[in-house]
Amino acid sequence: MALTRENIARSGLKLLNEVGLNGLTLRLIAADLGVKAPALYWHMKNKQELLDEMATQMYRDSVADRRPPASAGEWEGVAHGARALRRMMLAYRDGGKVFAGTYLGDTSLVGEHPLRRSIDAGLDAGRASRATFTVYCFVIGYVIEEQAVRPMPGEFDERYRESAGEAVLGDADARFEDGLAMVLSGARQWLETA
User: Fold this and answer.
1) Does the domain made of 5-192 have the CATH classification 2.60.120.40?
2) For residues 57-81, b (16+ Cβ closer than 10 Å) or e, as one string?
3) DSSP SS3 for 126
4) Tell me: the pLDDT tens digits for 143-185?
5) Which of 64, 75, 123, 147 is the most exposed place for a label (fewest CB within 10 A)?
6) Which of 158, 184, 160 is nearest to 77 (CA)?
7) Using one digit for the tens of pLDDT, what is the confidence trace for 54-110?
8) What would you report as the CA-atom Rg of the chain, rounded to the nearest whole angstrom?
9) In the chain, where are the structural domains located?
10) What residue spans of the chain are helical by DSSP H?
């Protein structure tokens, strides 16, 4: 197998579920791929570049899931994208941390602005981008906190049992939907007051 950025990223994602972000190293990936660590540095300069490529691969693999139904309105499309982004990150241990603050190396994955019709009808594009970026930040932050308590489906960090209340220990899906509704409502209201 030829060593590529994609198979290095895929190995990293596989190992992420086994060892978590703190245990993931280029040396471990090299061993998984059956090469010496220096061979990876030809493709990835450092761990941050690896994380950028892993996040790009996560995003690339979820493109079909992120596409809203054709019948969805703009804000339903934003909500659909938020849910898909959460599912994408939850598929990997520390997926939220990997995705947060990384640079997507394939800009073709970003696609059209979810509020394009409103922008074309006169909505300020900068404000629309700030509103949708706020939704994006909510999702990433929520997933990071969710994965602190539940690193993978079926796992639970017992340290939280004593100190956390229902807000942390309750139904994560319901809490996400409540938070998403609040953020979307606030974003829409903010855009309407412009």
Assistant:
1) no
2) bbbeebeeebebeeeeebbebbbbb
3) helix
4) 999 999 888 878 888 887 777 666 666 789 999 999 999 999 9
5) 64
6) 184
7) 999 999 999 888 888 888 899 999 999 999 999 999 999 999 999 998 898 887 787
8) 19
9) 5-192
10) 5-23, 26-33, 37-40, 47-61, 63-66, 74-90, 95-99, 116-120, 125-149, 159-163, 166-169, 172-192
In 10 A of CB 190, how many CB atoms? 13
Packing angle of the helix pair 172-192, 125-149 (nearest 10 deg): 160
DSSP per residue over 31-54, as a string? Answer: HHHTS-HHHHTTT-SSHHHHHHHH
> Two tokens at 73?
């309105």
Q: Which residue has the tokens 């229902």?
A: 166
- 44 Cβ contact list (under 8 Å, min separation 6): 5, 8, 26, 50, 53
Give residue 167's pLDDT: 62
